[in-house]
Amino acid sequence: MSRFFKSAAFPILIVIVLAFFASKLISDSDQSNKPNFEQFISQVDSGKVESVTMRTKDNSLDVVLKGGAKYQTGYPMNYEPILTNKLLKDAQQGSLQSFDVKPARSNVLLSLLTYVLPFVLFFGLWIFLMNQVQGGGSKVMSFGKSRAKRMSVDSPKITFRDVAGVDEAVEELHEIKEFL
Length: 180
Hints:
Elements: H1 2-6, H2 9-26, H3 37-46, E1 49-55, E2 60-65, E3 70-74, H4 80-93, E4 98-102, H5 108-133, H6 167-179
Parallel strand pairs: 1-4
Antiparallel strand pairs: 1-2, 2-3
């Protein structure tokens, strides 16, 4: 089981699970029978609507009926001028108490996150996978380091006495000593 947690499949599984929960949070959980756009227009014509807020960012209408009921519905693309004229006319005639338009505004931080965050996540996943390929630990960028071993003071040394009977070795050691 611990081998699974060290493999590359574990972070991929976590990303899939987090994406599933995020999609569940983002999706509209209230799937009640909301009136559609055609029913909204008939309610406006019959005078049952108290106030309307038009959101141009996501083409939706927040509707409050005269009984106090609230719902949200969408409207077709490029239908804003026709719908705005109709609702303004009804507001001037008095059948509609309030009409408001919320323009599409973009949040700079949110748009920055949506463009930068995927690259940061991809780069982080890439570093993680490279770390796994090279055996984990801190070996990601160790290709230029020397693997030479240091000699300690306590390491054994060969002296002239160790090669006492071999004349050739003694001569070679004298030559090495003179050279150094």
